[in-house]
Amino acid sequence: MTPPPLDAAQREQIRERIAQGKRAAPVLERVRREDIRRADTGRAMEQLNGFVLAHARRVPPRPTSGLVEQQRVFQRAAPRHDRPA
User: d(Cα 56, Cα 37) in Å, to the nearest integer?
Assistant: First the structure.
């Protein structure tokens, strides 16, 4: 289904939004870089580690890694050399 055509006011609004995004992009990039520069990566890693450990205590380990099952799926999907493709 084709959307209805845009009128002149709608096209102008779209152009203005695009221009607004282009004006904001450098400012947003500076903010992003400053946030990254100020980030305490070590503290964030400690917090993340705490979340992982808390989750690991609540969830029992899986009986397998899933690697054998994954290889079985790949084997079924792979072309067989003993039969025409």
Answer: 31
Give SS3 for 20.
helix
Give the mean model confidence (pLDDT) for residues 59-67: 86
Are 6 and 14 a contacting pair, CB within 8 Å? yes
- In degrees and rounded to multiples of 5, residue 8 shows phi and psi of -60, -40
**Residue 3 confidence (pLDDT):** 87
Strands (DSSP E) contained in 1-85 are none
In the structure encoding, which two tokens stand for residue 14, read together?
A: 């779209």
User: Cα dihedral angle (27, 28, 30, 36), rounded to 10 degrees?
Assistant: 170
Task: Provide the whole-model pTM.
Answer: 0.47
| CA distances for 65 relative to 10, 36, 69, 71, 72, angstroms | 54, 35, 9, 11, 13
The yes-or-no verdict on residue 85 having pLDDT over 80 is: no
pLDDT greater than 90 at residue 36: yes
